[in-house]
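G., before I forget:
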Amino acid sequence: MNDATQSPVRFGAGNSLVGMVTTPAHQAPATTACLMFNMGANHRVGPRRINVKLAHSLAARGMASLRFDLGGVGDSDAFDSAHDLQTRSVHDLQAAMDLIERMLGIRQFVIVGLCSGVEHAVSVAAVDNRVLALSLFDGFAFPERRARWERTLRRALAAPAHPSFPGKAKRWLLRHLTGNPSAKPLPGFLTEKQPPEVMAAWFGSMLNRLAERKVALQLLYSGSLHVCDRDRDQIGALAREPFAQVMEYQFMRNVDHTFCTAEGQQIYMQTVGDWALACARSANAERVSPSTSASPISSPAASPAAAAAERPLCGAYAPQ
Amino acid sequence: MPVTAHPFMFGPASRQIFGIFHAAEDAQPGDTAVLVCPPFGQEGLRTHRLFKVLAERLARAGIATLRFDFHGSGDSPGDETDGELDGWRRDLCSAHEELRRRMPASRIVWVGARLGATIAVLAARNGRCDPARLVLWEPVIDGRRYARSLREQHVAAIDTTFCIPDLAWRRSLAREPDAMPEEVLGTLLSPKLRAQLGALAPDSLTLTALHDTLVLTPAGDEHTAQWAAEQQSRHMPVRLAYFQHRLDWTSDPYPNSAMVPAGALNRLQGALYE
């Protein structure tokens, strides 16, 4: 890879966090950097190494990035045991921004959140003005009755033709009817469930706040959730909220939740890469305008604990 | 909590490799150091945490350990389409030299899993490195069988992950079961790697007498048992041990799928002393 320079780093409280800074090899990096971190228990390279591929692609186009492991995940040590997962994640993401600020002098960030990472990304954006854009993939989804019925119907129609469906049906029955402990998801932040209305209220209010602050929002949903999307089906009633009028929304039928195919990876990287670079250009244009250049870019707006107190306890994605 | 794991880049400037060195925590480290040779593609991602925990355990026991990612995999630079066995064999030797530089007086044990174990056999054969022992955990001894298995897992993953899966993957597997895949489980295979896997057969994978070898494989894996027996018949110092574990090599790290099975940790740690 000749377009990028890789620098492994240890940082954060107690030097407990491990990451990799990727910078353009032949040019000064853009004034906005990208942060990537874990999706569930995958380490910092992301599922199918998607974070590395995106980092290389961004570096070739002039944007630096840091991918890293949250405390206790991947190679990072669990240094902080005094706070809950969400508060720790906010601290870790802020430490990542601090590092890039020290290393590269960059004070504006696009954060890429995948699945469970969406909640962490939203939480840190709510308390740190350095975040100017969030790309959120397969995070919270609240499809309404029509979308859920259509998904069920389409699956039922497809079932007879597909040899994998008997196995899926068997697993579903085991999980829901028999109480077989081996078929039950273990408790944890990936699977613990909160009432959808609680999650929707938190998600909607947070994104509205971010939209008011002009934080750019990109919501991406994969073909793991549905086969079609008629009108921003995955956010359901939230489509009528103010943030939904300014966000970018894309349903990616040929991309799956863990980027299993090369085609899906290409679609995702192109979509996120183009959008992140556009956000950086737009922020750069605003930064030099007299009206905004006087305002501080880097000043945490509220405490992580305050943001954590308002949020639900878990991510929304459940394997289909 | 002492920080013992040090992430860094090493190797030639034209082919940098990412590694994490776990220094031995004892003031007087033991006489053994371990080099972990990770599996390919999704299997490598799946075992990342297992080998991280293993390395920490070994470091606490006084055994310095180096983990690394082959070129074009994990955190190492490079595209997947650059990946092939000859280059990876050289990467392994670079990692060995790096560990030797840090632990000059230690006997170095290579712990390889799946295709990483195969690359260890290939690298140990050329005499450039001097491992004292190879621990081969379910080595890939038949490239075509391995590729077929990965394709089957790929189809299973597609079936699981998509709301309504595309049948084309399954049809392609049924139509040409022995074809070498261009991609599996999110990893691209270069034309050279496909050719190398196609040529990889038990007969072409031979051990040497320069080191002793322990092969770990599940009971019932007759192919590996037969391969090990053939190496023994050539008077190579190799031993086969059956080993069952709960690690699913290719699944995503979801709950209900063990990421760091205690049995695997214990068995690999024990393998250093047998």
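Confidence is low (pLDDT under 50) at residues 186-191, 290-302, 304-320 of chain A. DSSP finds ten helices and eight strands in chain A.

More on Monday.
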